[in-house]
Design a protein that fits this description.
This protein has about 500 residues and is mainly beta. The chain has two helices and 24 strands.
Length: about 500
């Protein structure tokens, strides 16, 4: 496969062909570890969990309701200086198939600019050799929609940025628009849109392409702002990916984040919040619980690994990856993989993890003081010295799922990202149950408890490096390794 990937805006050019990146570490028995300490007291101080302010439920142009509480949110991390690709917020939409595209979204910002990177799994890569602003979206292209007021109707605070795929950045393959009461009007705010792609070649019929990328850099000054918005500011955001698989056939339907988004209806766009959520609560400590699956055959704490699981990672067969990979259910595996990287050609290696914890052991009327998720790592992709640390993010799932039927294509999207933990590669076999890695999930537990719902989490990363897979013990491990199973610990108290 010929290779061409220019990672937009950040990092070096990646020019290596797809290959199997997996080297599993030897699995040997060893002693179990003990209970992690209670989280620090700072998590039990401050103000309660914020809630979405009540608003009237808007309606999509089709008549479908778009209530704010049902719309997803990306909490963008703030950085000083250059934006680190591997620590940007991760989100996604779409599906993998011969005629449908899946997209990973990465978002971050610093004092001067907003960065939005899209990595698209796409089997055929086509651009317009004679582009015009009004036809950019009839080929492989991406649109970023922003409203800086957070409102639900088009206005001068609404912005539309369009960029078409091409081998190099090109001004004639970009366009921008500003909203008005009468619709979108051409505008000229400075912004960058850097393309990249992986496959055989652009504009040909060979079925050996893997995907493309587009990195948008939008200066806050272009939106009329002197600097970045204060943390906690909430804008509207939507993403659309446009697709064409033949120069003679019409464009294929767009895919969007959120799925109901359209350029004319900001009320159905998602939310972009500046800064990660912070949870603090006051209360007199009164209770604590450890929640994990007690036996392998118990239905408690179902979990699922979708995508490039450890047992079938990085397949190279073209038919399998486009027709079977996204619809595969590999339930009840004893281990799991979490993996992503900047080389979109290697997407058959990517993997997400879903897990659900019941919260009915927590008495009613309590305040969640703090909560942690612990996974036990036993290995990683790559030979010693190849793997890099991963900022593995934890997200709240937007809905329920079934362990027997969940796949990459039908798994619920993320409701919002809430933070992450650095996970280092292991240089040596650690012994069972593995090395404990801990995530603060206080915000997510408090939200689920307040809604009377189970805790539904997703773990994924925005890694850039090859060999990024990190391997953990799942709920379905054998009973001799119960201590290695995913563990939720919750501390609660009486309201003050």
């Amino acid at each position: 496969m010929a290779a061409n990937l220019r990672r937009a805006h950040v990092g070096p050019i990646r020019g290596m062909a797809l290959r199997n990146l997996v080297t599993l570490m030897l699995l040997l028995p060893a002693a179990c570890s003990g209970r992690p300490p209670r989280p620090s007291a700072r998590l039990a101080e401050g103000t309660p969990i914020p809630s979405t302010p009540p608003e009237p439920a808007p309606t999509h142009a089709s008549g479908k309701p778009c209530a704010p509480e049902t719309l997803p949110r990306i909490n963008a991390p703030r950085f000083k200086g250059p934006i680190p690709f591997e620590q940007t917020a991760i989100a996604w939409f779409g599906q993998v198939s011969p005629t449908r595209n899946y997209t990973d979204i990465r978002v971050g910002y610093n004092e001067q600019e907003l960065y939005i990177y899209l990595a698209v799994f796409d089997r055929h890569l086509w651009y317009d050799e004679n582009p015009a602003p009004q036809t950019l979206t009839q080929w492989d292209a991406a649109t970023v929609l922003l409203d800086t007021s957070g409102g639900g109707t088009l206005s001068p605070t609404s912005w539309r940025f369009v960029a078409q795929l091409y081998g190099e950045p090109s001004p004639d393959r970009r366009a921008a628009y500003r909203g008005s009461a009468s619709g979108w009007q051409p505008a000229d705010p400075p912004f960058q849109a850097v393309p990249g792609w992986r496959g055989n070649a652009l504009n040909n019929d060979r079925e050996s392409d893997r995907g493309w990328a587009m990195g948008f850099t939008i200066p806050f000054a272009s939106l009329g702002l002197a600097t970045a918005p204060p943390e906690g500011t909430r804008w509207r955001l939507a993403i659309q990916v446009h697709d064409r698989d033949s120069p003679t056939d019409p464009p294929i339907g767009d895919t969007s984040w959120p799925p109901a988004a359209s350029p004319e209806s900001p009320a159905c766009w998602g939310f972009l919040q500046f800064g990660l959520p912070v949870y603090r609560a006051e209360g007199t400590p009164t209770g604590y619980v450890r929640i994990r699956r007690p036996t392998r055959n118990s239905p408690l704490v179902p979990d699922a690994n979708v995508g490039g699981i450890t047992a079938r990672q990085c397949p190279g067969d073209e038919y399998e990856i486009w027709n079977e990979w996204g619809n595969r259910n590999d339930n009840h595996a004893p281990d799991l993989n979490i993996q992503n990287q900047s080389d979109v050609a290697d997407w058959p290696c990517f993997a997400k993890y879903y897990v659900t914890f019941p919260l009915d052991a927590i008495p009613p009327g309590q305040v969640i003081l703090s909560a942690t998720l612990t996974l036990h790592q036993f290995g990683n992709a790559g030979a010693p010295g190849q793997a890099q640390p991963s900022w593995i993010q934890v997200l709240i799932a937007s809905g329920d799922w079934d362990e027997e039927t969940i796949t990459w294509n039908n798994a619920p999207l993320a409701r919002e990202n809430i933070g992450g933990t650095w996970v280092d590669p292991l240089m040596d076999w650690p012994g069972w149950p593995g090395v404990p890695r801990v995530w603060d999930v206080s915000y997510a537990v408090a939200r689920a408890y307040a809604r009377g719902e189970p805790l539904r989490l997703i773990l994924y990363s925005a890694d850039g490096a090859y060999h990024s897979g990190k391997y953990f013990v799942s709920s379905d491990t054998e009973d001799w390794n119960t201590e290695g199973r995913p563990l939720l610990e919750v501390w609660w108290g009486e309201p003050r």
